[in-house]
Amino acid sequence: TQQLLSETSPEAPKARPWRVTTADRSVRKGIMAHSLKDLLNKVRDTLILADKPFFLVLEEDGTTVETEEYFQALADDAVFMVLQKGQKWQPPSEQGTRYQL
Amino acid sequence: TQQLLSETSPEAPKARPWRVTTADRSVRKGIMAHSLKDLLNKVRDTLILADKPFFLVLEEDGTTVETEEYFQALADDAVFMVLQKGQKWQPPSEQGTRYQL
After folding, report:
1. Is residue A64 less than 8 Å (CB to CB) from chain B?
2. Residue B58: which domain range?
3. What is the model's pLDDT at position A10?
4. In the predicted model, is pLDDT for residue A39 greater than 60?
5. Position A101 in a domain
6. Does residue B64 lie within any of the structural domains?
7. How far is A90 from chain B (nearest CA, A)?
8. What is the ipTM metric for this complex?
9. A16 inside domain
10. What pLDDT is recorded for position A66?
11. CB 3.0 to 4.6 Å from B21: which of A60, B4, B28, B83, for a disulfide?
């Protein structure tokens, strides 16, 4: 992995593994990203969101993550949820017991 | 992150990630801030409060946070609530079960 890391500039944050779920928690994917922008791009590709606008919130409490600064400060175990227009964050318990953690 | 930190003076408190919610708990955003003044400015910009006066309380029990000293002593997991004129802190249970954690 040393070679991969050295491709980025020395100051660039190291890519970290993130978990991203859809709004209904039916799909959950692991995605590597070194920045919020990087994650947004990969989420778009991975979850096939095409050109529909979306944003990322924290799965645990719906906190919107929209700055690189805040993204970099997140703990390694943060789980994201993708929300598209009209979708709203809901706590896990209201979506049945299937995905309770 | 070393470079980011060195932009502030050595004595300046390090920026920390905070979560800030609106009075009705419908919006929750992640914001980095190194001081109460910094957070107030960013809350104004992020939540588009324009020139309406507001203040910050702790989301868990409505404690008003108005001094830098108290702000710096807060734990990393503190969640703020923005209150504007006429708005009052309410415990989560009185706003339905939607945002109970």
Report:
1. yes
2. 2-90
3. 58
4. yes
5. no
6. yes
7. 7
8. 0.74
9. yes
10. 94
11. B28
